Each structure stands twice: as C-alpha cells, then as structure tokens.
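Task: sequence design from structure.
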C-alpha cells in the first residue's frame, strides 16, 4: 500500500499528520535531499513539500519529474505562497497532455 508524506517546516506540515500522512519536519532532518531520496525509494506515492524547502533542493526534485512515482507536489508554507507549486503542477499537466490547459485557471 502506498503512503503519503509531507516535508517542510513544522508549522506548515503538522496538520497533515492528523490526516494519517507521514510528516518530516525540517528541524528533524539532517539533509532534506537525502530524506527525499529515501522516501522516493520507499512506498511513498505522493510527497508534499513546502515551496521554501523545494526551492533549496530543486535539483533533487527534478530527478523524479519524469517518473510516475513519487509525485512531488510543492505546497505553500506558513511563510507565504511563491506560486512555485502552481507552476510545477501546470508544467506537469502540460507534459502529460501536451498543452497548457491551466493557463487561465
């Protein structure tokens, strides 16, 4: 059975634990990139990651963009929304369907 994880600052991801997701707070990770790779090797189908953390390990995230699993989804954190999450989703949709169908969404 696949699992879902959330990575990022504690305040942004703590609520995901109440939904049964596995949380990985930044202050408990020695190396976020290593944690990401470890989760990708396990049965994690979806990994939510705060935009601020994602921006720091973008090269590592890019290694998984052409793989079916895990799906890595940038999410806004408590510090604000940079729009990176929506841009990442739009790019994934465009790769999948061949057109930017979310342009005006």
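Answer:
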């Amino acid at each position: 059975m696949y699992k879902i994880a959330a990575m990022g600052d504690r305040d942004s991801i703590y609520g995901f634990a109440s939904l049964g997701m596995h949380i990985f707070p930044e202050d408990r990770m020695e190396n976020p990139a290593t944690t990401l790779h470890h989760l990708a090797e396990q049965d994690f189908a979806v990994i939510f990651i705060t935009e601020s953390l994602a921006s720091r390990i973008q090269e590592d995230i890019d290694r998984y963009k052409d793989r079916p699993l895990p799906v890595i989804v940038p999410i806004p954190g408590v510090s604000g929304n940079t729009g990176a999450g929506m841009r990442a989703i739009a790019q994934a949709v465009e790769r999948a369907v061949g057109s930017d169908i979310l342009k005006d969404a």
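The chain has a mean pLDDT of 88.
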